[in-house]
Fold this sequence. Notes:
Elements: H1 2-20, H2 35-45, E1 58-62, H3 64-75, H4 100-114, H5 122-130, E2 140-147, H6 152-170, E3 175-179, H7 186-193, E4 199-208
Antiparallel strand pairs: 1-2, 2-4, 3-4
Helix pairs in contact: 2-6, 3-7
Amino acid sequence: MLENNTRIAKDAAIVDEAITSRRSVRAFLSDMVDDETIRAILAVAARAPSGTNMQPWRVYVTKGEVKQRITDAILNSGIRAEKADWDEYRYYPDQFFEPYLTRRRANGFGLYSALGIGRREVDRMRAQHDRNFVFFDAPVGMIFTVDRRLNKGSWIDYGMFLQNIMVAARGRGLHTCPQAAFAPYHRQIRPVLNIPDEEIVVCGMALGYEDTSKPENEFRTDRAPLEEWVTFAK
């Protein structure tokens, strides 16, 4: 029994480390990630639970020239992020409210503070946001889509699939950044990847090795204590 408990504790520590060390990295090294590793990550991620095993995910993996074409299509569109039309789905509410407003502001202020960007430096804020569209210099950029005919349950399944990718990446010494910022630019992305009309662009994701020399990667978010959001019903 003691030996079994020790093994369980070790396994739990490995899994917990993969989960808790996952974060949105916003600066990557140029070191390439081989296709075999990417395939392994996606294969294990596809073990995510899925209602009646529908497996609603569709993934477009890009590197090099194709990834650059996505970048160019978005940055040359003339459509600023604040003017982009979220016409396929809406990630955020039209108006933020508590406690979500405070959390959102703390996240933004924390990141910009790490970068030395002041609250009135709008141009620098925009430039930082635009780094989404170069996948924060990661060597791999993924675009995720879902069939628009599916319902909300499939989107729940999709979230678990995305989490699996990020955790599996950490188990291999890689980092990620999930990026909803790509969603309103589906018109620019579709022709590059030949995405059919029946697929909604859910998000993008950068994948690669963290550049630990960059200040934006020193930023850490916190999490609300359990007492704020857990109820043990009795």
